Amino acid sequence: MPEKIDYRKSGVNLAAADRVVDEIRNLVRKADRDEVMHGIGGFAGLFALDTKKYREPVLVSGTDGVGTKLKLAFEMNRHDTVGEDCVAMCVNDILVQGAEPLFFLDYLAVGELKPKQVARIVAGVVAGCRKAGCALLGGETAEMPGFYPPDEYDLAGFAVGVVERERIVDGSAIESGHLLLGIASSGVHSNGFSLVRKVLEIKNIPLDTRMPYKGEDGREAILGTELLKPTEIYVPAVLPLLDRFAIGGMAHITGGGLPGNLARILPAGLNIRLCTDRWERPGIFDFIREQGGIDMEEMYRVFNMGIGFVLIVSPQDAPEIQEALQQNTTNRTWIIGEVTGEKGDVGRKVIFA
Predict the structure, then answer these.
(1) Is 144 exposed, middle or buried (0-12, 13-18, 19+ CB in 10 A)?
(2) Which residues contact 54 (CB under 8 A, 6 or more apart)?
(3) Which residues contact 53 (CB under 8 A, 6 or more apart)?
(4) What is the Cα–Cα distance from 312 to 38, expressed in whole angstroms?
(5) What is the pLDDT of residue 342?
(6) Strands (E), the chain
(7) Residue 243 and residue 233: Cα distance in Å, rounded?
(8) How far apart are CA 222 and CA 64, in angstroms?
(9) Are the C-beta atoms of 135 and 35 separated by less than 8 Å?
């Protein structure tokens, strides 16, 4: 008689999938909003938008993943921060349009379903949702043996937010003379890790390397811990400002760095003069540059270089906005440049001063 084959022998563990649901059921409730219509385990998440709050509500969505930063999480066997990265990359993007994040869904694909590991990943997602004030509405966990190695996975997600149509921030209100207010990043965030990993590989640098600088707590900084710092979530600091001030434009500094992400929000004819000596660059970037012999231009093109989010505001509002930011976030802020030029020309250049 031929050997009987079932789903488990193919590498998919349905019993483990059931345990995953049990592990994360209570976690998901910690990232909640009143509009959520509950029922984990259903085919879709339900969210009852309060239409009475808006005259012309516009839904704003964004999607992203964690990228090759996950490789470091695998190597360090630390899975509690990457979920926060995933949320941050999505909610910061929709915040740029002036939207309040409403809910988030994640997609986790694993080589082998390990309930405790999945619970740690989802705990990070929950932490990110709570910081952003959005609900974890649902998600999908797929066991894909033969596609991913047993100890590896991929994590992606998307967020949906809402903004009043007349309050959409799209950069069209940016004017010559406006100032750039930069908010500090927590480190490398979730972009440029293919370059980081290549430097570590070529130079044979282990993740337990002691860094030549102190951490934020004044203690010894370790390379792997520095690199796995989760992406900062800017929603609680920035969203309240939109009720008080006219913001010309905003940028989330991700792939493409400061020049790439700032140029994309400029009206035609306007340029940005960026003063790189006006903020403190975290030591991790100097370490990567020195170890890899990377040109500074390439560093600014790949990494956030210490600025994770930028507001473009009028000179009159800038001091009050900066003061409000410093009250709402532990991250430092700086005036890092200004808008120049005349609308109508080609423009859209970021010039380093």
Answers:
(1) middle
(2) 162, 164
(3) none
(4) 39
(5) 78
(6) 36-37, 46-47, 57-65, 100-110, 135-143, 153-164, 179-184, 210-214, 220-222, 249-252, 270-274, 307-313, 333-341, 350-352
(7) 19
(8) 27
(9) yes
Parallel, antiparallel, or unpaired for β 153-164 and 179-184? unpaired
10-residue mean pLDDT series, the chain (353 residues): 66 68 68 79 84 94 97 97 98 98 97 92 96 94 93 97 97 96 97 98 97 82 96 96 96 96 93 95 96 97 98 97 86 94 77 86
The closest alpha carbon to 352, from 269, 257, 285, 250, belongs to: 257
On the 0-12 / 13-18 / 19+ scale of CB atoms within 10 A, 346 is exposed
The Cα 185–Cα 84 span in angstroms is 14
Measured CA to CA, the distance from residue 44 to residue 26 in angstroms comes to 18
pLDDT of amino acid 23: 66
C-alpha distances out from residue 68 to 97, 195, 257, Å: 27, 10, 17
CB atoms < 10 A from the CB of 3, how many? 5
DSSP one-letter code for 51: G
C-beta neighbour count of 344 within 10 angstroms? 10
Q: CA 185 to CA 291: how far, in whole Å?
A: 21
pLDDT tens sequence across 174-227: 999 999 999 999 999 999 999 999 999 999 999 999 999 887 777 889 999 999
CB atoms within 10 A of CB 165: 10
Residue whose pair of structure tokens reads 């929000």 in the numeric block: 265
Calculate the CA dihedral of residues 344, 164, 179, 349 and round it to 10 degrees.
Answer: -40
Whole-angstrom distance, CA of residue 338 vs CA of residue 305: 18
What is the model's pLDDT at position 242? 96
Amino acid identity, residue 193? F
**What Rg, from alpha-carbon coordinates, does the chain have?**
22
- Going by C-alpha positions, the residue among 106, 98, 28, 107 that lies closest to residue 59 is 98
What pLDDT sits at residue 17?
65
Can you give the pLDDT at residue 215?
A: 78
Q: Please tell me the distance from the alpha carbon of residue 16 to that of residue 24, in angstroms, as a whole number.
A: 12
Q: Give me the amino acid identity at 115.
A: P
